[in-house]
């Protein structure tokens, strides 16, 4: 598979929190860093995601927001 995104982070699924239509998938990419993605429950099923499975966090964004307290 080839994709245009340049930020591809390999890791292990540590948790899947399912909601009514959307799941939060947490991927441990190492170094104490966990990336959380919000994807549809259908996508979780299609990808056969489960805790302990290897997966990629693919990030493509046009904006990065910064905030302070």
Automatic annotation (TrEMBL):
GO terms for biological process: molybdate ion transport. This is Transporter. Keywords: Molybdenum. InterPro entries: Mo/tungstate-bd_C_term_dom, Mop_domain, Transp-assoc_OB_typ1. It comes from the Bacteria. Residues 2-68 form the Mop domain. The keyword Hydrolase does not apply. PROSITE patterns: MOP (PS51866).
